[in-house]
Each structure stands twice: as structure tokens, then as C-alpha cells.
Design goal:
Helices cover 14% and strands 28% of the residues. Helix 2 packs across helix 3 and helix 5 packs antiparallel against helix 8.
Length: 511
């Protein structure tokens, strides 16, 4: 049985998704129709160039979601970090899961928004729910096909339980260490490299640096060879693996049964590239090649980009590269990446000891001076923390507070560590928006407006400490005054750049 795999287009799934994750549907541009599939063939398309770009990194709605009254509630997930596609099971304990029925499911973050453990994301996927009771669910961490036929995997972020009565739990933090696609090379791959990156000298050297990083993680008897050169610019099943630039960016590998026999990486010439520091719309050859090689080795791309973690953004296997995620210049493998390589080619453990950095920040937006309270929520038993507040301030406390004196947008990072764990632990990254104008009491209100969700939207317009219909009335009556005297961003609820009646409607609909 033979076939080919190219990373695939993302299509909607059957349930409503959190806004941040659903927006990922816009992240991957279409690159063509899927090839006809044989009985056991999985095939599709996805660009292997600069990378699909996720939406701006903001506070994730998943972190402030609340379970419906009487709905399921997750109390714990054990282990809190696990690999996907390795038959690893996790146990979810809590209350209100009910009896298992046709709509009972466990949802993991993924490229298509949610990967459903029942297999309903795509008809060919297995049912990875092992057992289900009102207080305990055992489920395998899944890897399979998305709704559009592309390969997807469970990723880090908030998993959730859906009952047969269609009630959904609040998301619960869970980290995927690495994922595998069920295919691997039997012998070390040999790639030819075409040094034809338009306008960039040293492109082939950058490619070979990425190869060297993976070789350092692979066993001594399994090293990628990329010493040869080629003039080819298109992917083709011709018996020779290739890395080159061409008009149609793609990653393709061909396999026989579960053995990868050839792979081509074509970086799109429609993107701007650099062999040095990347940023904005200019992508780094070495970071992107590092990511693409992960796919070609049989390591699944991960899609968890929760800004406060747990996140996959610091892994070479993360699908996305953006300034907001802080990984545009990621050229080092994470401990999880190395663990994936060791599992596939060195006989390593499915779940080696790893950490997943995560934290809470409250508030994440407001006028200067803004005091933000941070709390460590890392998974895996972290005992050391290194906070970077983005304005030069640092801390090693577990739950520090930091005051931002000047307006601006600050990138915060937390690195978690523990004795006996890899020292280069992953980071969670959030941005704090500090405004230059203070929020004032609105005429007719009871006090200073507040942001009930600590998200920079001051929906408690009358300042009585809660969101209610009185806020709608005050906003409607004082709309002109608000537009003239308040910071627009604090009261522009529908994000159209102005204070208007549409914000009144938004406020009413979100009571």
C-alpha cells in the first residue's frame, strides 16, 4: 500500500468553536484540490512556505469561558502533558459528564479549531474515547485527519468535554508534548538542496543549519544528508528528496505502508525570505525549514497558540511563525521536539518528563499606570520561574505583580524550569496593552467603569461593579459624551474603530 501526504487545507468542523481557534480556519490559504485517495491513502495540500498566519495574539476567549449552569466541570487531567498519536491515554475526572451517547465527546485544540476524540472530525478517524462515566473519561490523545482531509493532531491549550445533552465544559489546561503521524523513515533521508532563493545569499547554508539542528537530536546512525545540490524547483516523485524554492510552495512526502520513502520541501518564491533575522512579512529560511523538516520526519505539526499557555509556539513543530508568537527566529529545537525525534528514531519514551509553561495575567489591558497581577499555572511540576515583563522588568517569584508606568504594548514571557528537566523549557507569551488615557466616570453612572472580563473592554459602563442592563441605558444616553471623553478602544466593543450605536447593540447582546 502506497501513497503520498501533503499537508492539507483546513475546513470547518461540526460544532461551534471558540473565536480564537475558529479564526484559524482563515490561516491556511488554499493551494489546490486534494489528489484522489486510494483505499489507504491520506492526501491533501498545504503551503510549506512562510507558514499559515494565525490571528493577532490577544486574550484567548477559552480562558474566560464559563461552563453552562448544570453542565460538565473538569477537575483534573492526568497526566497533564502527553504525546499525541502514540496510543497514550489521559484520564479526565470531574462531574456532570453524564452517560456516553452519540454526542458525547472530548475536544482538543487543533488546526481546524477542534479535534474531536470520537473520530467525528473525519469519518476515517478512529474513536479514541476508551471509557466514559459521569465522573471519569479515559481518552487517547488523538492524531488523524481534519474535516478537509489534512493531517491534524490534538494540540496544547484548553480541552473540553461535551455531554450527550450538548452541554460544554469550560476549557481545562492540557499540553501536548509532541505528535506523530504514524509514518517514519526506515533509512536516513538524503536531500538535495537548490540554492535558488531569490535575492538571498546563503539560503542553502541556512537550510543546512536547520538540518544540523535535527541531526543533533537524531541518533548517530540516523542523520539527514543534505550535502548534494540540485537545480529542480518542483515537487515530484522521482526517487530524490529535494529542498528548493519554487512558484508553488508545498511539502510532500511519499510513503509505502508506514515507511516514508521520499520527501520534497518547496519554499514559495512569492514570500520574502532572509538567511538572517526574520520579522513581519519576511520569513527566516532556517526557522521555517526547521519546522518543515519536522513534518518530513513524521512529526506532527502542533497548533496550540494560547498566549498565556500552555502553548506550542516555542516548538519547531508549531505550524505558525509570527511576531506575536515570538517564534519568527526560532532556530533551536525544544525539549519536546527532541523527544519526538528520539521516540521515532531512537526508541525513546512516549512521555518523557517535560514541562509546559503557562500563566494567568489580570488585567491584560487598561490605562497607565497599570498594575498587572501574574500567576504561574505551568504544568508538569515547575519549581523555577523566570518572568520577563517586556519593559525591562523581571521576576523569579511564583505570582508577581508588575506596574507599567508608560503607555505601550508589552510582550510578557514566562520560562518554567525544574531540577531533572531540560533547562531550555518552553515559554508562554502574552501581550499587555497599556493605554495613555484614563477611563473616566460616565455621567449618570455610579462610579469608574470597569472591565468585567479584564480584557480591556469596559462593559461595566456605569461603574457599579457588574455588567447589567443599566450599562446599556447609560451607554445609549451618553454615547456622544463617551466618544468625546473616553479612550475609544475601551468602549469600542464591536472593534469598528469608533463609539456608535452598534456598540450599544453589542453590549445588549452580551449581557
Amino acid at each position: 500500500m502506497a501513497g503520498q501526504v501533503r499537508t492539507g487545507c483546513i475546513m470547518p468542523v461540526r460544532r461551534c468553536l471558540p473565536l480564537l481557534l475558529a479564526a484559524l480556519l482563515l490561516a491556511a490559504p488554499l493551494a489546490g484540490a486534494a489528489a484522489p485517495a486510494a483505499a489507504d491513502t491520506r492526501s491533501g495540500y498545504e503551503l510549506a512556505d512562510g507558514g499559515a498566519v494565525p490571528p493577532p495574539v490577544t486574550a484567548a476567549p477559552a480562558r474566560v469561558a464559563r461552563a453552562l449552569a448544570g453542565g460538565p466541570a473538569i477537575a483534573a487531567v492526568s497526566p497533564p502533558i502527553a504525546s499525541a498519536g502514540t496510543n497514550t491515554t489521559i484520564t479526565i475526572t470531574g462531574t456532570g459528564f453524564g452517560a456516553q451517547g452519540s454526542r458525547s465527546d472530548v475536544g482538543f485544540p487543533s488546526a481546524g479549531g477542534v479535534y474531536w476524540a470520537s473520530g467525528s472530525t473525519n469519518a476515517v478517524n478512529p474513536d479514541d474515547i476508551v471509557s466514559w462515566s459521569d465522573t471519569e473519561i479515559v481518552v487517547r490523545v488523538p492524531n488523524g485527519l481534519g474535516a478537509g482531509g489534512s493531517r491534524e493532531t490534538a494540540s496544547s491549550g484548553g480541552l473540553r468535554v461535551v455531554t450527550d445533552a450538548n452541554r460544554t465544559s469550560a476549557p481545562f489546561p492540557f499540553a501536548v508534548s509532541f505528535g506523530v503521524a504514524g509514518r517514519r523513515w526506515a533509512a536516513p533521508p538524503v536531500f538535495l538542496v537548490n540554492d535558488n532563493c531569490p535575492g538571498v545569499a546563503g539560503g542553502a547554508d541556512a537550510v543546512r543549519r536547520a538540518v544540523a539542528s535535527w541531526n543533533a537530536a537524531l541518533p548517530p546512525d540516523f542523520r539527514i544528508n543534505c550535502s548534494g545540490a540540485s537545480n529542480a524547483t518542483e515537487a515530484a516523485r522521482d526517487g530524490q528528496s529535494l529542498i528548493a524554492w519554487g512558484p508553488s510552495g508545498s511539502i510532500t512526502y511519499w510513503y509505502e505502508n508506514s515507511t516514508i520513502v521520499e520527501a520534497d520541501i518547496i519554499l514559495s518564491t512569492s514570500y520574502a525570505w532572509t538567511a538572517g533575522d526574520a520579522g513581519g512579512s519576511v520569513y527566516g529560511i532556517e526557522p521555517v525549514t526547521l519546522r518543515n523538516l519536522a513534518f518530513c520526519l513524521g512529526i506532527a505539526w502542533l497548533d496550540g497558540i494560547e498566549p498565556q499557555g500552555p502553548s506550542d509556539a516555542a516548538k519547531a513543530s508549531c505550524r505558525y511563525r509570527t511576531d506575536g508568537l515570538g517564534n519568527m527566529n526560532l532556530v533551536a529545537l525544544s525539549p519536546a521536539d527532541r523527544a519526538a525525534a528520539d521516540y521515532l528514531y531512537g526508541g525513546g519514551d512516549t512521555n518523557p518528563p517535560l514541562l509546559a509553561a503557562a500563566f494567568a495575567a489580570d488585567p491584560i489591558a487598561g490605562p497607565a499606570p497599570l498594575t498587572v497581577r501574574f500567576g504561574d499555572a505551568s504544568l508538569g511540576g515547575a519549581t523555577g520561574r523566570a518572568w520577563y515583563f517586556g519593559d525591562g522588568g523581571t521576576s523569579t517569584e511564583r505570582n508577581p505583580a508588575h506596574t507599567y508606568a508608560a503607555p505601550g504594548t508589552y510582550t510578557i514571557a514566562l520560562t518554567a524550569s525544574a531540577p531533572g528537566y531540560p533547562s531550555d523549557t518552553i515559554r508562554a507569551v502574552e501581550r499587555i496593552a497599556v493605554g495613555g488615557t484614563a477611563v473616566l466616570a460616565v455621567p449618570g453612572g455610579a462610579g469608574i467603569p470597569t472591565s468585567t472580563a479584564n480584557d480591556g473592554q469596559y462593559d461595566d459602563v456605569n461603574g457599579n461593579g457588574r455588567k447589567d442592563f443599566a450599562d446599556v441605558v447609560v451607554y445609549f444616553n451618553q454615547m456622544t459624551w463617551i466618544a468625546a471623553n473616553e479612550p475609544v478602544g475601551a468602549f469600542d466593543f464591536n472593534a469598528n474603530g469608533r463609539v456608535d450605536f452598534a456598540d450599544v447593540v453589542w453590549l445588549f447582546n452580551h449581557l
